[in-house]
Amino acid sequence: MIPAKFDGLMPVVILMAVAVLLFLGGHFVSVLLAPKKPSHLKSTPYECGEQPVGSAWSMFNVRFYVVGLIFIIFDVESVLMFPVASIFKEMNEMGHGGYALIVFLSFISILIEGIAYCWKKGDLDWVKSYQVSLKQNNK
Amino acid sequence: MNQTVVSYLSQYEFYDHLLAFFGNNQGLLSFVIYMIFILIIVTMCATIGGLGTYAERKISADLQQRVGPNRVGPYGLLQFLADGVKMMTKEDIMPFTADKFLFYLAPLLALVGVFSTLAVLPFSSGFALADLNVGVFYLIAISSLVGVAVFLGGYASNSKWSMLGGMRGASQIISYEIPVTLSVLAITLLAGGMSFGTIVGQQKGLPFNWFIFHNPFAFLAFFVFFTGALAETNRAPFDLPEAESELVSGYHTEYTGMRFGFFALAEYIEVFVVCGVAAALFLGGSSLPFNISFDILPLQLLEFIIFMTKTLLLYYVVIWIRWTLPRLRVDQLMSICWKYLTPMAILNLVGCSIWIVVFNGKSIAELIFGGH
User: Fold this and answer.
1) Assembly ipTM
2) In chain B, what residues touch A129 (CB-CB under 8 Å)?
3) Does residue A109 lie in a domain region?
């Protein structure tokens, strides 16, 4: 057998390097082959033939912000669950299955609680304001 | 236990001769072997990505009773090469309002993110490039680079269509990552490890040993995973980031020529990778349907063929779904993810953990037929 240090991340690094080389190579070939006739009109942002109005970098709907927040909560939780999940079976074979299950489920219950809260608050609805005002009118 | 190419080949006698040829420099020899295999795999995946575009057009033509591409080469098979050449000879246009650096960076990130995922794909029990002990975790982490690329591409173009597409893409990809991650967690529970070697190694034998048939929750988890994976790769019916009928072309509206080509290539290879991961996690991956105690090179080839068959069948299903189902609305997309898939994925996770404790980690088949 061979030492573990040659068996680890070397292919990952090589693959990344190959991706970068492919990108640069593609660009190089395209620079050689492609025509270059720049004009101002050609390089205006596409807006279906109309003159573009203003910049696209504008304020954006805060819905995406909430989605991002929920994502971070869930992602961090699942990152923390991965190590537990990978030794769960081993724990069960050692006879600590019930204990591991209780710990695992109580951790997941925090996750369930989180999603239930978001659901109740209406953060999972795309058009929150409309839904909320509808509920208030019904009351 | 899976092995990487180098550790697999080091069992054989000719490895020692090779080692002597390279002056006993283990690092150099590993590098050369990895390089050769990476070039083979990258070429193969690029060809599969290219043929994917061809298959997409041909299958859609079949489904709509058209002929499809049939001019370039026999049955139009060389269409993707013609498309590639055409992309290279197209003028490179960048909007003058764009953020130049990020505009260049976005396709590169997509390409790097997708190529790095190829490293852990278990092509056969001997020929994985890297069998990391955090395999699935690495895969989930690095494939989210593509989400960054989609958003950056949309943002850097400074065009309204691109911006909308990028925003949709970012929110969609991060949302659907949750059910996918939770489904993968369920499989990690069943396999008792995160490396692809461990996961595939436990599904050896006939189909009832596959994790999809391990218990009812794992069966559900497969569909949650597959739906979520479709959305993460921006495939129809979840192709909102590039919805051509509403956003022109979404996040790559402003991309022309080769840079558009890289986005397309990355997308098609990503679909292949996702299908491969689904095959490895749930459908037994490269495991042979019979037990063999000895190990010779042709067997590895057979395993490779089994893996590719499963992956390409799933690839066909992905294309089939694209041309069968209509696109969702944004609000439907979000409610499917957060109100249906995520609770279902959590249920699967809870179900799998309880199943392991109650039935001592046995699958349905083992409970029925006895077994281990």
Assistant:
1) 0.81
2) none
3) yes
